[in-house]
Design goal:
- The chain is built from twelve helices and 17 strands.
- The chain has 341 residues and is an alpha/beta fold.
- It has two domains: 55 residues; 256 residues, TIM Barrel (Alpha-Beta Barrel).
- The radius of gyration is 21 Å and the shape is globular.
- The two termini are 28 Å apart.
- The relative contact order is 0.14.
- Bound molecules: aminoimidazole 4-carboxamide ribonucleotide (AMZ).
- The site of aminoimidazole 4-carboxamide ribonucleotide has 19 residues, from helix 3, strand 11 and strand 12.
- The site of aminoimidazole 4-carboxamide ribonucleotide (AMZ) has 19 residues, from helix 3, strand 11 and strand 12.
Length: 341
């Protein structure tokens, strides 16, 4: 589909704003298109190409200008108030714990481990210092064995931070979930039991509103369990659909094939997960750079409200502060370069 030359945004305090396509900087795989604000000479916005190509993903308020209608210039040339921020996404750094250390696995494979830090508490404090608003913890030993293994580290991290912390991996009973919620964790993530004991998830979600999250980890569209070693016959989207109305706070949707690969998130799978229910979706797996995060932003209107970032943060490919400025709640529009002002 050819890209239109001009768009107009309607959801602002001052009526219509018009934008014009100014080029494709090809920062990463030609994913980004820049739109210049015609009325607002001082601002520029970056819109993921995916969003522009697929009108279904357009943010509310975007519409293509009708044929022949040109974007108008400002009457007095003065700066208008900034464009209303129509969307943002929470960026959640991940700390995966294996034998007390902070690691990343490649596609969840316990034989392909990269060790990033032997001091997960210091690492957690560092993510908080850099602006994280929430931390994602996984007890990888727990996910594999079904038993808690890294509790002392988890507790030290929770005690050291002021931001909310969520934990998944090996939470297989109501008692265990309740214990964790009582020790200062904001949310617990249930994966295997969501497939094996769906009633347990519903019961906990009813009793702990806003604090139960379901992790749906998919390989070829089917849910994997027990450290992703077992494969079920349950479709990931079907599981998401079945959770509608259960009261779970969010679904963390992980695409195992992309997890730990930096290859870019599986946007189609995420869009399908978001459409399967009205439960907010947190994207997990595959983020490799800032362009990936911007591409994900296009899914925000579908209900993707957050993204878990792991390896890309540890490798330094994504700078947390920069990512927060690009897609986080305080997301700013960048100043227009003098060459096109
Ligand atoms: O990387 C893995 N092999 C892995 C992983 N990251 N296996 C499980 N997990 C995570 C899931 C979810 O957050 O993404 O553990 C949690 C699920 O654990 P359980 O024990 O409830 O299935």
């Amino acid at each position: 589909m050819p890209l239109a030359r001009a768009w107009t945004a309607q959801r602002t305090t001052c009526g219509h704003r018009h934008f014009e396509r100014i080029g494709e900087p090809c920062r990463s795989g030609e994913r980004l298109v820049e739109l210049a604000a015609v009325l607002q000479r001082s601002t520029r916005i970056l819109v993921p190409l995916l969003e522009l190509k697929n009108p279904e993903l357009w943010l509310s308020g975007w519409r293509q200008l009708p044929e022949g209608e040109e974007p108008q210039t400002g009457e007095d040339g003065s700066h208008s108030p900034p464009l209303a921020r129509s969307t943002a996404m929470q960026i959640i750094p991940a700390i995966d714990l294996l034998d007390g250390a902070c690691v990343r696995l490649h596609q969840g494979d316990y034989d392909r481990v990269t060790r990033f830090s032997d001091d997960p508490v210091a690492q957690a404090i560092e993510w908080q210092r850099q602006g994280a608003e929430r931390l994602h913890l996984v007890d990888l030993d727990g996910a594999r064995s079904g038993e808690p293994v890294n509790d002392s580290v988890v507790q030290a991290i929770t005690a050291a931070l002021t931001i909310p912390v969520q934990l998944g991996g090996g939470v297989r009973s109501a008692q265990r979930a309740e214990e964790l919620l009582a020790t200062g964790l904001d949310r617990v993530i249930l994966g295997t039991v969501a497939v094996e004991q769906p009633e347990l998830v519903r019961d906990l979600a009813r009793r702990y509103p806003g604090r139960i999250v379901v992790g749906i980890d998919a390989r070829n569209g089917k849910v994997a369990t027990r450290g992703w070693i077992d494969e079920s016959t349950v479709e990931a989207t079907e599981l998401a659909r079945s959770l509608e109305g259960s009261g779970v706070a969010a679904i963390i949707s992980t695409d195992i094939a992309t997890d730990g690969t930096l290859a870019g998130p599986n946007l189609e799978a995420l869009a399908a997960m978001a459409r399967a229910s009205s439960i907010p979706v947190i994207a997990s797996g595959g983020v490799g750079d800032l362009a990936d995060l911007l591409a994900l932003l296009a899914l925000a209107p579908l209900g993707v409200e957050g993204v878990i970032v792991g390896r890309a943060l540890y490798d330094g490919r994504v700078d947390l502060a920069e990512a927060l400025a690009a897609i986080g709640p305080a997301r700013l529009q960048d100043a227009i370069p003098p060459s096109i002002a």
